[in-house]
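Late entry, evening session. Most of the bench is empty. Finally got around to the prediction I had been postponing all week. Sequence below, unchanged from the version circulated by S.P.
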Amino acid sequence: MIFDWRIFASSFFIIFLAELGDKTQLTAFAFASRSKAPLSVFLGASGALVVTTLLAVVLGGAVGRIVPEKIMKIVAAAVFIAFGLLTLIEALKR
């Protein structure tokens, strides 16, 4: 396995920008503001993000060998659209 700094940098910045202000960050903010142990919140949240990212990379690598990239993009887009529509429907119900 060869380390590629360009891929590292692009994944870091894309994920960093995508995570800014998302529910995970807001949840960590809420936990830290309520707890008397912000280091524990940081370590717990960081560990959870590392594990979920590891799962995504392992599964993505395995699926990427079987499913063509175009199909993966279409499925990913459909899932994002579905989540967006579900969120919109929930917001309109209230």
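Two things to note before I forget:
The chain has one domain: 17-93.
The chain has a mean pLDDT of 91.
Will write this up properly tomorrow.
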